[in-house]
Inverse folding.
């Protein structure tokens, strides 16, 4: 590791300044020559930030190369909204479902500490989006809960020595139900409405100096800027600066269709620099991204004054990262480790009919119908193919049969075939009752979350004769409103530990002490 010295603004050339506003992504399918270009930029003091997603192939190797190459405090980003390393949760909503901010602090501290040990100095957390449609990528619809949980998480991250990035600014209430990976999202909130609602948590954290940076979203807010989304709008990013925010801005990934479909792949890079401090192309072509930034500057899409302002904030952030090093904790406490690891169990929520318990008879003859992804071959379900590796069907089956030895298990797809539904219906009459395990994931480019009509039809059909006694659901709970009444509903987060915990609740081994942050319309 080289001796680190801060760069001086007045000594930077134009080429170096243009590199300072670029965040290069070096994971995934990036070609070796592209990686070499990134490290040449680092050697030339011509790269402000690098993004190495911690769970991608060669992450450790790339991190080591950065440490061996950089002699200035380059910003090293990762995303950790699900956790990091051994500290994984079922997305951010699970933290709020514990009902206690001590879990949020422990989560922030453990991901910050772990990221720091891996070499990172910036982690893109906490999530601060306000949502009333069940998203697991949100603390929920209550602005005060968001503020409380986000502040606790950010304090933990600061105590661990990493910089925070609140996302996704301005967190406006979306009115189209569109995934910005696929198209531009929209909010009709005014400045006043944002301050009262979506930005409430931001302002609370700004007061405590807990937000070092903000990630701008690809949401258009026509009441503020009719033409450009937040990530390309100086009017929108400038609004919170007027309220006292002094940190840096980084765009969300510019490769999303919310940007490319309307603003193109070249000029959007310049618009991003104009409105932010760091552009995040998130592409596998950093050479093109850099040339695009240079070309946009030469075309006048952003001015030298705008470039200088952005570079100064990047340098200030690099300086702050060194100051954070001095404050970083040396180790985690046993309680922090315990709380962080226990989020998935502490956040399980159960709603049951009056007179019932969340547990069912372990000696009963139950049929467990377990949903798996469409891509999964039902004869080969021993290997998890899910994002972040969270649902392991054979592991679930083993746990169920150990706890409920007289029961049976059937798997079915998210979009079940005629054969799947036939098998479950026929097997249901051979058992005392049916317990469903369902899920929904907030996958990019997958559109709105919902149970497929075939799954809903299957459950409705079985419930005509009251065959379904319980349902365990992981992910967005609001999509359950399409289902008929079920006596027991157990909700968990999107992670392996949460699945195990929900089954333990059903077996009476664990008490469900979590809360729900959403108003779930269960019949």
């Amino acid at each position: 590791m080289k001796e680190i010295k801060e760069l001086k603004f007045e000594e930077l050339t134009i080429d170096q300044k243009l590199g300072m506003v670029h965040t290069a992504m070096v994971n995934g399918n990036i070609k070796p020559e592209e990686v070499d270009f990134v490290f040449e930029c680092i050697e030339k003091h011509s790269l402000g930030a690098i993004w190495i997603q911690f769970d991608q192939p060669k992450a450790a190797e790339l991190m080591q190369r950065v440490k061996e190459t950089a002699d200035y405090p380059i910003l090293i980003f990762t995303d950790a909204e699900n956790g990091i390393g051994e500290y994984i949760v079922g997305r951010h909503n699970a933290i709020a479902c514990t009902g206690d901010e001590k879990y949020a602090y422990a989560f922030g501290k453990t991901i910050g500490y772990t990221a720091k040990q891996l070499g990172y100095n910036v982690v893109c957390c906490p999530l601060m989006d306000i949502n009333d449609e069940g998203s697991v990528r949100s603390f929920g619809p209550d602005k005060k809960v968001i503020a409380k949980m986000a502040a606790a998480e950010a304090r933990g991250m600061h105590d661990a020595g990493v910089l925070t990035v609140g996302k996704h600014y301005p967190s406006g209430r979306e009115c189209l139900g569109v995934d910005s990976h696929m198209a531009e999202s929209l909010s009709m909130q005014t400045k006043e409405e944002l301050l009262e609602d979506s930005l409430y948590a931001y302002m609370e954290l700004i007061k405590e100096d807990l937000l070092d940076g903000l990630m701008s979203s690809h949401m258009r807010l026509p009441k503020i800027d009719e033409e450009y989304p937040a990530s390309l709008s100086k009017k929108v990013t400038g609004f919170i600066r007027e309220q006292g925010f002094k940190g840096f801005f980084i765009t969300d990934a510019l490769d999303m269709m919310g940007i490319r479909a309307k603003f193109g792949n070249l000029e959007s890079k310049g618009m991003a620099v104009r409105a932010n401090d760091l552009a995040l192309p998130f592409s596998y072509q950093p050479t093109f991204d850099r040339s695009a930034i240079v070309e946009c500057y030469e075309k006048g899409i952003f001015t030298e004054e705008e470039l200088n302002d952005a570079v100064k904030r990047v340098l200030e952030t690099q300086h702050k990262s060194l100051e954070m090093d001095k404050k970083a904790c040396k180790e985690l406490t046993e309680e922090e480790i315990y709380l962080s690891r226990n989020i998935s169990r502490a956040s399980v929520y159960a709603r049951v009919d009056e007179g019932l318990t969340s547990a069912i008879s372990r000696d009963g003859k139950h049929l467990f119908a377990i949903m798996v992804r469409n891509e999964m071959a039902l004869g080969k379900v021993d290997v998890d193919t899910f994002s972040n590796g969270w649902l392991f069907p054979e592991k679930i089956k083993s746990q169920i049969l150990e706890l409920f030895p007289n029961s049976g298990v059937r798997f079915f797809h998210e979009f079940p075939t005629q054969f799947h539904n036939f098998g479950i219906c026929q097997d249901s009459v051979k058992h005392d009752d049916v317990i469903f395990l369902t899920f929904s994931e907030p996958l990019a480019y997958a559109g709105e979350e919902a149970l497929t009509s075939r799954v809903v039809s299957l459950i409705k059909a079985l419930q005509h004769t009251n065959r379904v006694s319980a349902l365990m659901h992981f992910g967005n709970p609001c999509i359950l409103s399409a289902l008929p009444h079920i006596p027991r509903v157990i909700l968990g987060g999107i992670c392996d530990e949460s699945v195990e915990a929900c089954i333990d609740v059903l077996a009476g081994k664990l008490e469900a002490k979590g809360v729900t942050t959403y108003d779930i319309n269960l019949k």
Q: What stands out?
A: The chain has a mean pLDDT of 95. The chain has 18 helices and 17 strands. Residues 342-506 form a domain with the Rossmann fold fold (CATH 3.40.50.1700). The CA atoms of residues 110 and 337 lie 7 Å apart.
